[in-house]
């Protein structure tokens, strides 16, 4: 009995191997430090298969950069779940997101799409996935903690990631300072929720501290 894989299955496997190899190499060496032959060798494939499955090194880099960010963004979730107050959540998420190693890669990928308009739909598709992933996570956190936001979750998450990527872009433009100088936490509106219209939720640590300050 033949154990050969169907052509379509082999193709999917080869494409996945190329993408995984690209993620590892681009993360370690950056865009300029990797060529198509390096990626093919790491995936045990032929260089022309990179062109066949992705079209170009530029396109493969855009795929790889966003895959890195989506994986990193998923790792933010347990960090956020450990926070017990909205202020701690905003600070931890912002600080960690700005330090993600994939953020510079995505900023570079987006610069590639500016000069390669045919790759813009690829960036838009991946940004949509990022925003939806973040929206689902935020919605779950709000429900679990009883917290609230001042605008739709879709807008909240899109604003957050736009601030993260924008902070990195400004830092790389040569402007003095670093991305950490941007108050990304300040763009988030997460706060203690309400149980009934006009009535504050049960006091959490943050509310208790505010009440104590008001009595002093």
From TrEMBL:
Keyword Transcription in annotation: yes
PANTHER family: HTH-TYPE TRANSCRIPTIONAL DUAL REGULATOR CECR, HTH-TYPE TRANSCRIPTIONAL REGULATOR RUTR
DNA-binding region per Swiss-Prot/TrEMBL record: 35-54
Domain HTH tetR-type: 12-72
InterPro entries: Homeodomain-like_sf, HTH-type_TetR-like_transc_reg, HTH_TetR, Tet_transcr_reg_TetR-rel_C_sf, TetR_C
Keywords for the protein's UniProt record, in alphabetical order: DNA-binding, Transcription, Transcription regulation
Protein name stated in the entry: TetR family transcriptional regulator
Spans annotated as Disordered: 194-216
Basic and acidic residues bias: start-end ranges: 206-216
Organism, as annotated: Asanoa ferruginea
Gene Ontology terms for molecular function: DNA-binding transcription factor activity; transcription cis-regulatory region binding
Keyword Transcription set for record: yes
